[in-house]
């Protein structure tokens, strides 16, 4: 009897806590909850701060050492793009960074409370929540409070919150300060090819995994998952002949694809039901993913704990109890074989 008496209240308390936090199985104010189309398909909203940092300052935002600051999530594939560029271009001393906590609370949004060793406080604005940074830039802001954010410490505003644009700035506009200024991931002779690849990789693969995970009808999910794997088949075919997506040159298109691939078996396969195959079952894509992971500096930007805990714990509409799956163990450090395809 004593056992029953002491254990039962604990169970009841835990049960109540879950049911009040996770009411209706909805994810409250986070943007993915508001982006559902008429047949249950997920539709990503566009971003709102779209200014540009330029080397000459003609845009009003001149590239300068120490002037700009990134707010990122280690979980987020879009933010990860910028962290990889920052490493590869040698911009660590030029662009400062703060990292949000992995848990995205549906009521407060991203927090900067430094709840675990891989996250940080806000060292620039002293914000506890990312939304405060958005409101500082625009008190009337009424869109979603997404990572990543490129902040200008001089004019106290958000320059841009769209990763596709920020990586182009990092690639070319900060070369005066970059320790690896020679690296050009958007070279002029490959631009149309890179754009063409981005045009189908983004909606079908980068965003395609989210369309599977956030689908709210069987029809929407079926369409999204088959479409995703058709495009992964296409990537596998390209990578069976070429070392990289655009041939023998590593480019922006590869970085953009990689940040989805590196999360694939860790979370998308199970949590987003992208499970027709595991990434490991695509021999060329798997080797290619390991090759990019092993490029100097890239592994430093991949924080597996944040990736897994963020997805499994934050998306309560699809994983109501926030239980983090134990597996699979994915080892990206095993030597890759991509050297046999040249260069
Ligand atoms: N297109 C944006 C997407 C940014 C985005 O959707 N970020 C997610 C995290 S992966 C976010 O912050 N979501 C918060 C929310 O939906 O409220 C980019 O590439 O920068």
How would you describe this structure to a colleague?
The protein is mainly α. It contains 10 helices and 4 strands. Strands 2-1-3-4 form a 4-stranded mixed beta sheet, with helices on both faces. β3 (149-152) and β4 (157-160) form a beta hairpin. Residues 30-32, 47, 73, 76, 78, 144-148, 162-164 line the site of glutathione (GSH).
Write the layout of secondary structure elements.
Layout: H1 2-21, E1 68-72, H2 77-89, E2 96-99, H3 130-137, E3 149-152, E4 157-160, H4 163-172, H5 191-206, H6 208-213, H7 218-241, H8 252-271, H9 283-293, H10 304-314
Parallel strand pairs: 1-2
Antiparallel strand pairs: 1-3, 3-4
Helix pairs in contact: 2-4, 2-8, 5-7, 5-8, 7-9, 8-9, 8-10
The structure holds glutathione.
The site of glutathione (GSH) has 15 residues, from helix 4.
């Amino acid at each position: 009897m004593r056992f029953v008496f002491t254990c039962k209240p604990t169970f009841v308390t835990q049960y109540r806590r879950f049911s009040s936090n996770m009411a209706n199985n909805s994810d409250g104010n986070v943007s993915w909850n508001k982006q559902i189309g008429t047949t249950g398909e997920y539709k990503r909203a566009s971003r709102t701060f779209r200014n540009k940092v330029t080397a000459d300052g003609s845009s009003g935002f001149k590239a300068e050492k120490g002037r700009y600051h990134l707010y990122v999530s280690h979980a987020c594939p879009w933010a990860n793009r910028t962290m990889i560029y920052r490493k590869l271009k040698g911009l660590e001393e030029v662009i400062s960074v703060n990292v949000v906590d992995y848990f995205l609370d549906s009521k407060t949004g991203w927090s900067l409370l430094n709840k675990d060793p891989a996250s940080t406080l806000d060292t620039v604005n002293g914000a506890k929540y990312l939304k405060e940074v958005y409101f500082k830039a625009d008190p009337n802001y009424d869109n979603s409070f997404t990572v990543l954010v490129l902040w200008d410490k001089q004019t106290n505003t958000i320059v841009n919150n769209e990763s596709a644009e920020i990586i182009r700035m990092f690639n070319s506009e900060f070369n005066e300060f970059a320790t690896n200024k020679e690296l050009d991931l958007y070279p002029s002779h490959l631009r149309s090819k890179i754009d063409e690849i981005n045009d189908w990789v983004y909606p079908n693969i980068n965003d395609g995994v989210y369309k599977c995970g956030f689908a709210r009808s069987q029809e929407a999910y079926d369409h999204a998952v088959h479409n995703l794997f058709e495009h992964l088949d296409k990537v596998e075919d390209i990578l069976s002949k070429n070392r990289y997506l655009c041939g023998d040159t590593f480019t922006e298109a590869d970085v953009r694809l990689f940040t989805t691939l590196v999360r694939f078996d860790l979370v998308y396969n199970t949590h987003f039901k992208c499970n027709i195959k595991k990434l490991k079952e695509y021999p060329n894509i798997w080797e290619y993913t390991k090759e990019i992971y092993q490029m100097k500096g890239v592994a430093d930007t991949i924080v597996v704990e944040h990736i897994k805990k963020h997805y499994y714990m934050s998306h309560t509409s699809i994983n109501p109890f926030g239980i983090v799956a134990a597996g699979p163990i994915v080892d990206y450090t095993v030597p890759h074989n991509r050297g046999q395809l040249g260069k």
